Input
Amino acid sequence: MRKNQCAPLFKIALLAGAAVATTALASSALETSQVASSQGVERCSSLLGRTFSGAVVEKADFVAAGQPLNSYVNSSAGVCRVRARLSPTTDSLIKIEVWLPSSWNGKLLGSGGSGFNGGLSFAKAFLPTAVKDGYVGLVTDAGHDFSLSAKWALGHPEKLVDFGWRANHQGVLAAKALTASYYGEAAKRAYFQGCSNGGRDALMLAQRHPEDYDAIIAGAPAYNWTALFAGFLQKSQISNVGPGARTLTPKLDLVRKAALDRCDKDDGVKDGLIGNPAQCRFDPKVLQCKSGDGPDCLTKPELRALRTIYRGAKGPNGQIVMAGPAVGSEYEWAAWFGSPTSAGAGAAADYYRNMVYGDPTWDPTKFNFDRDYPAATERVGATLNATTPDLKAFLSRGGRLLMYQGWDDAATAPGNTIAYFKAMRRASGAASTNQTRLFMAPGMAHCSGGKGPDTFDALGVLDAWVSGAKPPETLIASRYENSQAVSWGAQAKPLSTRPICAWPKTAHYKGSGPASEASSFICR
Output
């Protein structure tokens, strides 16, 4: 009995001792944190005014542990945020931002741009998640301040070069030098990721500067800029000029529904997605009106316009230079080329005015594919196009290339990405078999969004691959209520998951299990 009575007293004493120890530990941890923060501030501020591979540091501030980096991510162990400038020519002013985490994993991660801009335009999304994972994060402004237009290029040929490739190359040289100085050792690996124009950035680095990065992620790459923008204007003309043009857009939902009725179950399950649009045997002729017109059928002119868009853009020699959008992506068309002011058509007009012809008055309604596409290729193709398929120099260093593309992307159509990947493998030799991968995502639109799962850990897969894992055969993609917030670092539970298979394999339903779970599918 006494033993039982004494037990609580012993427990109280033990807890009291633990409280004292905990208080001491907390005090010690706080002091250690304060010292680390003080040292971090001093170490970070010492970078001010110094030059690293031509980049002059203009700002260096330290974010202590626990402080916010964006709306979703806090600094875990302190981050030194550096802003620097580069001027490789008298008409160049390239801004770079490099974030250096106190808990460094020994690697550097660069990110590409979007639209007419560099990665600095969405630094608050990319850099916090990079340093959260222990990477030194790098972005550039591609040589100009953020702009929805390309007016910055008018009369500035050197800025066009900065945007085309020089900013990313010079930026990583500076970031590597800065990293080595800050940590006292060089980064053991450097990775790059980008989508859309950022995907073009990625391929440009692999082609022009194969020594800059050890592994690269290129998503939905807008690698052939001259063909991309010519294609936008051609599709916009088809959608807005001529018989049946303007009346087709309101019927695109009808077209997509018919395509789903024909091909949704090709992968074994009806889930609102076409697993492999390239194999979809949908003939839109089934929608042709038997007589007259109506909301539930297509007239002959509408059908003709639809087929022309699916076909893609033909060059002067009759070859397809820009593939058409895939079957099932019709809900995305209006946003990109449904009107002269749609995102793609509007950007294309801006591109021709400011980058190609240097004429702000150039009229996109006068666009002629046979004239303007070759003119753009001749004038700016060498600077902006990342079309070289031979990646032997990159692969010979052990480089890894992971490409991905959404099947529902109506901007950089999937057929273009597949065409580059096939050409690259033909030109790059045997190494490309195990050192390159392409993943085609059913239902994913341009870089994200769409009707299917669109969020996946390409970086984690790439890092494991470089570190010795077998070449990846699947990416597990998730669909969230707000995938953009997740990309910024928000935590959320996925609504559904699905495997994205290494091309040319596609995911097929096993015959049992929830269609919303990746485990119910197999790649074949």
User: Anything to note?
Assistant: The first helix runs from residue 2 to 45. Confidence is low (pLDDT under 50) at residues 1-35.
